[in-house]
Amino acid sequence: MEATVRLSRPVLQLTLALVKPDAVAHPLILQAIHQKILENDFIIVTNRDLTWSREASQTFYSQHSGRFFYQRLVEFMSSGPLRAYILAHEDAIRHWRKIMGPTQVCRARYTAPHTIRGSYGLTDTRNSTHGSDCPESASRELATFFPEFSEGAWAASGHSRGDFLYH
Ligand code: ADP
């Protein structure tokens, strides 16, 4: 009797990754971050370049309103172009956050120098990248940046790249 080998497919999770204005402003850093995404086996489901209005930045970071860095963060995030990615991987949220490194740049430099923030972060605010912090945030953030994207259609498509986007 022929043996049947069943290869189980990994369960892919989606996350939103943003490259912040400090990193987009430097083409070599933007390229290095893109390379990190590829080297770490993410599927780039899609990506988009855009510039935020002040209002969009305020809304996105409203959970931090009232904190000492909020105004600075809002100004910075609407100060120049961003790149947004939908990334897919097993445990994508945790995987991407590990590759980004700690929020605060000194901590990143000294404890995780090979992470994106450890390598390229400039200050605690200008720290190169953002990543969703839980599945609920990921769904909300994907919808903010890619309103035409359907997680359900993507899953039903067999996790392909890009071609499930309906305009
Ligand atoms: P993360 O981006 O690592 O998930 P948070 O959600 O706590 O971190 O913060 C959102 C963003 O706010 C950070 O990426 C950073 O740009 C900014 N920020 C957070 N903490 C500080 C701080 N102590 N000083 C200045 N900016 C900060």
Automatic annotation (TrEMBL):
The active site is at residue 130. Belongs to the NDK family. Transmembrane segments: none annotated. GO terms for biological process: CTP biosynthetic process; GTP biosynthetic process; negative regulation of cell growth; negative regulation of mitotic nuclear division; UTP biosynthetic process. The keyword Kinase applies. ATP binds at residues 20, 69, 97, 103, 117, 127. The keyword Zinc-finger does not apply. It comes from the Eukaryota. InterPro entries: NDK-like_dom, NDK-like_dom_sf, NDPk6, Nucleoside_diP_kinase. GO terms for molecular function: ATP binding; metal ion binding; nucleoside diphosphate kinase activity. CDD domains: NDPk6. This is Nucleoside diphosphate kinase 6. One of its GO terms (cellular component) is mitochondrion. It comes from Callorhinchus milii. PROSITE patterns: NDPK_LIKE. Residues 12-153 form the Nucleoside diphosphate kinase-like domain. Its EC number is 2.7.4.6. Keywords: ATP-binding, Kinase, Magnesium, Metal-binding, Nucleotide metabolism, Nucleotide-binding, Transferase.
